Amino acid sequence: MSPETHTVSRSSPLVRIGRLFSPGREHSVYSAAALLMIATMLARVVGYLRDTYVAYAFGAGPVTDAYVAAFTLPDFLLYLAAGGSISVTFISLFTRYIAEKREEEAQQVFSVILSVMVVVFTLVIILGEIFAPQFVGWYFKGSQVQLCITLTRILLPQPLFFLMGAIVSAVLQTKRQFLIPAFAPIVYTAFIIAGGVLLSKQIGIASLAVGATLGSLIGPFLMNAVGAKRTGIGFKFAFNPRLPAFREWLWMSIPLMLGVSVVAADEWILRYFASFSPGDVTRLNYAKRLMQVPVGVLGQAVGLASLPFFARLYSEKRFEDFESTVNNSVYRLGAISLIATSWMLAVALPLVDIALRRGRFNLVDTQETALYFLVFSMSLIFWAVQGLYARGFYAAGDTVRPMVAGTLVTIFSLPIYWFLFQRMGIIGLALASNIAILLHTFVLAGMLDRRGLVRLSGLNWLELTKALATAFLAGATAIWAGKAMPYAGTHMTAIMNIGFVSITWAAAVAAGLWLTRSELLAQDQQKV
Asked: Could you report the per-residue pLDDT of 233-250, keeping only the tens digit for each?
């Protein structure tokens, strides 16, 4: 084989795809983002299958309200332990130790953190099992309180598995290996579906909770643990909270444990107010999950992929590169989110029909859920980019400022939720959710700007304006196209409407980007 042929074969699409899905590959920021986007899209598909199955098998009523509400206490415990960000602080610390050639200390702090976490959180779960009735009675006002208590107790071990998984996953991410962390959530969701299919006739909706708990053990924890072991990291039980490195990690994490960001609190608040109206907890939950599909595919994927690279740039004191990388990520993600929003608004009702209406989930449920989805969709850009701003702080080792800001925004937002719920009902809750995440995003961006880390003046406002103009053009054109082929309450008309609207929307987006001479689709040549 000639060198030319050998080069071509190595760069063929199949070879590149194979390398992208190689478990031991050390990714660039671009390949990591691509992999995570693919995995997140698959996760959303599996999540859609889960929601479709739950809607078909159990509908939207008091029983499903109890199931959705049963996640509140486990989620709250996970949040108190900074579960959503515990890997963030570990990545910052672990990355610095590896960069400073302190591998033994890095491995030691890994074992100590994992050991202390298991001991402490096992005690927390035991207390949660004992006092579950008191906790559930405080935040759930539906008719199925006892069912909610039972489901909560089944789900309570989840936070421990997620926390352990977050740490071992962080090891893989610091080594720029993203395959297993990307696909572990899919396994978790698949177990929920399997639990329902296999056990629902015997134990009803509790089958979903059993599947969720087993899935959190197998997917987020065990899969990542196996992957981390293959990198050479070892675990030795060591309950040593006095270790200086552990204390450093703890002081970085405490602000995240004490703070109550609207990113997590929004769901708790929505569930509390909506529990006064049977079925609305479930309908709001479905609407929010549908809206979170592009947030996951775009925002979460880019956020997860970017943090190790943000942290490296900051650790190497490449502050200009750090600022430009964050701003460029925000601009591109924000612009794509604006354009995606225009499509979501145009197809809201037929999309919910195709996604959810079957079995006990009827046309009335579909129409109400679609209305909530439409309102939630307007805040897509803020849900997407806020994570990048937060990771800008975390990469710089600053967890105090975002904690304080997030908590204050949540406290300030509570009267907004209450007022709009009293005046407008469930729609008011969706609007309040949008306002809260908008405030949260602008506060984080303003604080980064004030510190001089990521200046707002460096954001590509011109290109964002072009994207907004394109979104208006595409959205208006798509809505007009929808009237030419209207949705008539059947799956077939929903499919035809979505297809025709999507084609028209895509053409309008292409025209808008061309007319405005947008650089959005231009390949970014910056290397990190």
From this structure: 878 888 888 888 888 888
